[in-house]
Amino acid sequence: MSANGWLQFVVYSLVLLLTVKPVGIYLARVLEGQRTWLDPILRPIERLTYRLCGINAEHEMNWRQYAFAMLGFSAVTMLVTYIIERAQAVLPWNPQHLANVGPDLAWNTAASFTTNTNWQFYTGESTMSYLTQMAGLATHNFFSAAVGIVVAIALVRAIKRTQSDTIGNFWVDTTRSLLYILLPGSVLYAMLLVAMGVPQNLHSYTSAHTLEGQTQTIAQGPVASQEAIKMLGTNGGGFFNANSAHPFENPTPLTNFLQILSIFIIPAGLTYTLGRMTGSPGHGWAVFAAMYLLFAAGFGTLYWAEAHPHPLIHGAAQTITASAPGGNMEGKEVRNGIAESALFATITTDASCGAVNGMHDSFTPLGGLIPLTNIMLGEVIFGGVGAGLYGMLIFVVQAVFIAGLMVGRTPEYLGKKIESYDVKMAMLYVLIFPLIILSLTAIFVLMPNVGLGTTNNGGPHGLSEILYAFTSGAGNNGSAFAGLGPNWWYNVTIGWDMLIGRFLMIIPVLALAGNLAQKKSVPPSPGTFPVNTPLFTVLLVGVVLILGALTFFPALSLGPILEHLLLKSGQLF
Questions:
Q1: What letter does residue 3 receive in the DSSP assignment?
Q2: What is the pLDDT of residue 322?
Q3: Among residues 230, 281, 6, 195, which one has the least CA distance to residue 124?
Q4: Are 348 and 263 in contact (CB under 8 A)?
Q5: How far apart are CA 415 and CA 567, in angstroms?
Q6: Cβ–Cβ contacts within 10 Å for residue 541, how many?
Q7: How many whole angstroms separate alpha carbon 148 and alpha carbon 466?
Q8: What pLDDT score was predicted for residue 319?
Q9: What does the alpha-carbon distance between residue 380 and residue 374 come to, in Å, rounded to a whole number?
Q10: Distance of alpha carbon 23 from alpha carbon 295, whole angstroms
Q11: CB 347 within 8 A of CB 265
């Protein structure tokens, strides 16, 4: 660990903190339908969109209608992406004449990008045409990010309202999220990336002759446009197989900094939006503080684990003690180093963003434990755009309920009494996540030919590869312990894993929103637990850790923790 590494973390934290309020204010104005500086340009386009699509912008929906619209929109766009993948060989913008994507991989990929997961069981530059990348995958980067934002705002809006049967209009919320937030942000971001050396073209791949007399194929294409929304929308699907370790996706230290900043900028801003829309700015900052504390703890642990030299190097004939003082550089780009790799890995798994600039599978056992745990917490440490906020608000409801039990009074949250139905929906959300992850992991571990046949490692590390895959899918993250290879069973099952982890968990969120919107607002009482204090932040962090981390502790004990202990005795996997 070095002073330079910690300085990078401090600078990043300060820049992120400076963006929270202005971004949060802008998001609140957009999503409340207030005037913004982009209105002269975008308001006519917004009205035209409503007219062409037959949307009544004045009509609001109850939570069931909102959920039905969200599910229908996602299903149709998923089907379109599947068709594009299956027909890409006969469609335009395919200069490399790539074949149609196989049915199981097309299913997996369509589900992946629909759910904001961007899990990639394929090599992008040799599998997907330019049209598939742009019309299928990049568009879903926008759509899935918008869905996350609008669900979070529907919940915030429900907390704010009193005795209301409606929580907003899905089509209006989605249109405004796309037009005023994601599109302009991505256009500006893409232009910055192009200026810093990221390609943006529709050319055929270039053949270059190396000094050794070999021919090298250099892939390129519309990279910058996909890279921008990949990060801003916390999607993570790389244009290239190496993702953000590829110099065409992430060529300089400045692009690396912009990428990790853009992952958190909207999720962090949404915490201020929460405080502004509910009339309790202090509560928004308390939620931000809880997220930041978990983020800082994760980075510190991961940086510590990777900065120490790996105790063993497995040679051709024997295992020998290593003395490399620079730490564990396996699987990391030299140009990024340990500090930037640790920071990137922490941020990308705190958010539902599968982008990577290093190989998580090559981390030390305790280093790999942190990304895995980050996802297992529900990716509520800022989290994906929207998804991180509504996930954390589920834990807020539970924290308020626990606080109410402590004082023997009906718990209250920002003027709303938290009753049995609210707690049931919150617990349903929490229970679905470990149920799908642990069940599928157990099934595949017990299937030697199917589940274990494509792992590169045995023992606890092999278990970690399988556990990480289903955790990443259900958590809609998309990063991987890439020692796990694909097969038909993984493609199909992880596809369902991602869909359940996204949409089956959104339904309780919207049901909770519908119930909260119908409640009366009650004034604070002597037994009301304040939700804008440092004590609340500590309680919230405790609830996240207890309900999140402890649920998965037995599985973690058999995976990375056991691997660490066995590594100390000289055993490798």
A1: H
A2: 41
A3: 230
A4: yes
A5: 52
A6: 18
A7: 26
A8: 40
A9: 8
A10: 20
A11: no
User: Strands, E, within 210-299: which ranges?
Assistant: 215-218
- Where exactly are the structural domains of the chain? 23-205+219-282
CB 426 within 8 A of CB 390: no
CA distance linking residue 507 with residue 513, whole number of Å: 10
Asked if residue 377 lies in contact with residue 391, where contact means CB atoms within 8 angstroms, the answer is: no
User: From CA 564, how far away is CA 569, in angstroms rounded?
Assistant: 9
Contacts 24+ apart (CB under 8 A), 179-184: 179/42, 179/45, 179/46, 179/49, 180/30, 180/36, 180/38, 180/42, 181/26, 181/27, 181/30, 181/149, 181/266, 182/142, 182/145, 182/146, 182/229, 182/232, 182/233, 183/142, 184/38, 184/42
Nearest to 546 by CA among 384, 377, 382: 377
Mean local confidence (pLDDT), 376-385:
91
| Dist. CA 49–CA 59, nearest whole Å | 15
* Token pair recorded at residue 427: 């617990």
Please state, in angstroms and as integers, the Cα–Cα distance from residue 496 to each residue in 127, 142, 267, 501, 504, following that order.
Answer: 22, 21, 26, 8, 11
Q: Taking the complete model, does pTM exceed 0.90, yes or no?
A: yes
At 162, the pLDDT band (50, 70, 90 cuts) reads: very high
Q: State how far the Cα of 316 lies from the Cα of 58, in Å rounded to an integer.
A: 70
